[in-house]
Design a protein that fits this description.
The protein is built from five helices and eleven strands; from the N terminus they run E-E-E-H-E-E-E-H-E-E-E-E-H-H-E-H. With about 325 residues, it is mainly beta. It has one domain (about 10-315): Porin (Beta Barrel), CATH 2.40.160.20. An eight-stranded antiparallel barrel has the order 1-2-3-4-5-9-10-11. The longest helix has 7 residues, at about 235-240.
């Protein structure tokens, strides 16, 4: 027999952890790789949020959950060992807001009992949902950028100042309609709930791994080709191509600057890979609190967990809620 645990009808909670992205700025000693194999672990950034969760069925197997999260992603070519990427010398950061609704399903439930009055249960859940997110990539003018001194002298930039990138059209592309988009979050979570004496549970903790595939290639402002600097303002031109001799000499990169700047219409130079859209993901810890609802039942189990029907633990009809 399987174990079914009563849970609260309504729960609220907090999430906090880490986030990263998969796009045109990656890691390793080669050109871009797919999925997580190309993310830069060193650029992992914080993610945090709140959620509200409601039970959909009597047995507590199906749930609906709403989340609001702040997710931060970042990338920098200086963290790759691949010469052409390092010479490109691009970077970005993106502070994202995400609101989502998702369906959760309990997949595995395992009771843990280590003494008469100390019991807990671990539940593994899968989830799939729908999310709306807003983002806005930013970058700074590299201090070694040939245009840096001129931009500072006229007050367009300053040391450490982050500039919003979409309106600068660093690739000559207007992607303003891609700053508010939808995605489908999916993943797995593991929840640990302790039981106090007589079965009541008021809170639980968990860990969650989630991914989001998107329909935009501009989370990092990098997608296609270098654009004619004469068609951009000075700030946009400087942020479009940040390759410079200083970085190449410091890193001993034998790569021509011509490989990282505009040439002409007939010889377009790749700035990114327009064939792969960007994605992002999170690993977060969660803390949940039961607001309302009562327990249902704890089915007797003998074959799987070795409990006897006469066991006083089962007779109390444990009141799990999590």
């Amino acid at each position: 027999m399987t174990t079914a645990l009563g849970q609260g009808v309504l729960e609220i909670g907090l999430t906090a952890g880490m986030s990263n992205y998969m796009g045109d700025i990656g890691d390793g000693k080669s050109a871009g790789r797919t999925f997580i194999w190309d993310l830069q672990e060193v650029r992992t950034r914080p993610a945090f949020g709140v959620f509200l969760r409601h039970k959909l069925d009597r047995d507590g197997l199906w749930w609906i959950r709403g989340d609001f999260m702040r997710i931060h992603i970042s990338g920098h070519d200086k963290h790759t060992a691949y010469g052409p990427r390092r010479a490109r010398n691009l970077h970005f950061r993106n502070h994202m807001s995400e609101a989502s609704i998702r369906i959760e399903r309990d997949l595995i439930q395992q009771p843990i009992i280590w003494s008469r009055q100390r019991r807990a249960i671990v539940t593994v859940r899968g989830f799939l949902g729908f999310a709306f997110f807003k983002h806005n990539p930013e970058a700074r003018v590299d201090a070694n950028n040939p245009a840096y001194s001129d931009l500072v002298s006229v007050g367009i930039t300053s040391d450490g100042y982050w500039h919003s990138l979409p309106e600068l059209r660093t690739e000559g592309v207007d992607y303003s309609d891609e700053l508010q988009m939808t995605t489908m979050p999916f993943g797995l979570s593991a929840v640990f709930a302790g039981q106090r004496r007589y079965g009541t549970v008021d809170f639980y903790i968990g860990i969650e791994l989630g991914f989001r595939l998107t329909n935009t290639d501009y989370l990092d402002d990098i997608s296609g080709y270098y654009y004619d600097p004469s068609q951009m303002n000075p700030l946009g031109a400087a942020l479009s191509s940040q390759a410079n001799e200083v970085v190449m000499e410091q890193e001993e990169i034998t790569h021509s600057l011509a490989n990282h700047q505009w040439q002409d219409e007939e010889n377009r130079v790749a700035r990114g890979n327009p064939n792969n859209d960007d994605a992002y993901g999170t690993i977060v810890l969660s803390f949940g609190k039961v607001l309302s609802g009562s327990s249902s039942r704890f089915r007797r189990t003998r074959s799987r967990y070795g409990y006897k029907r006469g066991n006083s633990f089962l007779k109390r009809r444990a009141r799990y809620r999590f």
